[in-house]
Amino acid sequence: MILIIMLPEPFHDLPDEALTQRDAARGDRLFHQSAPALGPIFVVEGCVEMIRHSEGGHKIVLHRAESGETLAEASLFSPHYHCDCVALRDSLVVAMDKTLILSRLDRDPAFARALLRRLAGQVQGYRRHIELLAIKGAEDRVLAALAEISQPGSVMEFAATIGLTHEATYRALSRLVIRGLVRRVSRGRYRLAGKRPERL
Predict the structure, then answer these.
(1) Do the Cβ atoms of 73 and 116 come closer than 8 Å?
(2) pTM of this structure
(3) To the nearest whole percent, how much of the chain has pLDDT over 90?
(4) Which of 43, 38, 35 is nearest to 83 (CA)?
(5) Which of 30, 45, 102, 151 lies 20 to 30 Å from 67 when distance is taken between CA atoms?
(6) Distance between CA atoms of residues 180 and 99, nearest Å
(7) What angle do CA 91, 95, 98 make, to 5 degrees?
(8) Between vectors from CA 160 to CA 133 and to CA 140, what angle results, nearest 5°?
(9) Band of residue 4 on the pLDDT scale cut at 50, 70, 90
(10) Alpha-carbon distance 182 to 195, whole Å?
(11) Tens of pLDDT along 84-109?
């Protein structure tokens, strides 16, 4: 049985049969690369991320979704997933049925327009992420990332998000603190020096 959950537009009025609730423990894989694409996922609680691994074995985070966010919308138009999806923390998610969503697209222009708006917004976010990953110097990339997205989770999670090793990220953060551009607000948590620290 699905909990009473307000999904974001345009998924908020999908029928119950289009939704499957799932608990995922930290480290559980929700789907893996090359598996048949079944549809998008909404994160009710917790945090999940879509990842790939480089040839050198480094984890690259393609997208991270926390409570209230969706991921894998592109699976609607692909026969297979193109990355792994792993729970970063214990999470509750709702999987949305691809077949029923595509059927709705065919017969509901308002639903189709709302989905296009959502996907367009995601493209903008991905472009900003690509621009961030293109910054060459580790210090410059860390500084830009703190300005753009702050620090999601631990330093290791932050490093994966911005495509650096955690060692390079720690070194860059240390140098930025010495230069007075970044401050350490608590153990493992950093903010731009001009930003007021959040409550942790």
Answers:
(1) no
(2) 0.68
(3) 60
(4) 35
(5) 102
(6) 53
(7) 160
(8) 40
(9) low
(10) 9
(11) 999 999 999 999 999 999 999 999 99
* Cα-based distances in Å from 17 to 22, 31, 104, 138, 192: 14, 20, 13, 47, 46
Decide which of 1.10.10.10, 3.90.550.10, 3.40.640.10, 3.30.470.20 is the CATH code for 136-192.
1.10.10.10
d(CA 185, CA 122): 30
CATH numeric code, 11-132: 2.60.120.10
Average predicted confidence (pLDDT) for the chain:
88
pLDDT single digits (tens) 32-68: 999 999 999 999 999 999 998 877 777 788 888 888 8
Q: Which among 84, 6, 91, 114 is positioned nearest to 43, based on CA atoms?
A: 91
| Structure tokens that stand for 28 in this block | 């559980």
Cis peptide before 109 (omega within 30 of 0): no
CA atoms of 99 and 174, how far apart (whole Å): 49
User: Per-domain residue ranges for the chain?
Assistant: 11-132, 136-192
Torsional sign, CA 144, 145, 151, 156:
negative
